[in-house]
């Protein structure tokens, strides 16, 4: 009976230590994203009329932006592009009348044969707000298409990576 408990302890203790180590690594990996999200939402609420947050993402281009989308009290949809560089000012755009995420994805599906949509995220370029649509084609190649939010026109297409 004693041997059974010893073997159980020999197996359980290392297993518990391994699980604890994995949880610690996971929490440390998530920390920068969580801090960026909290910072961006705080700035977005201070600098704009956003009262409720709908979405958050990180957009990387020539510069990195934390993107917060939300609504005002009057149900107006705003996007706040908070630069990672804290010395720069956030950019606030009204996207109420622009192309929605769903409309952008539908336009892509109507024009290109996509195998799998990997992501659809809001970003900002010199031309204004864009939807970055990342997908796999039938040859499992990655494609990046950028749709202008305001006009609904394609801004840039990067194919077959």
TrEMBL record:
Residue stretches making up the Cell wall elongation regulator TseB-like domain: 40-83
SUPFAM superfamilies: Cystatin/monellin
Protein name: DUF5590 domain-containing protein
Protein source organism: Bacillus kandeliae
Pfam families associated with the record: TseB (PF17881)
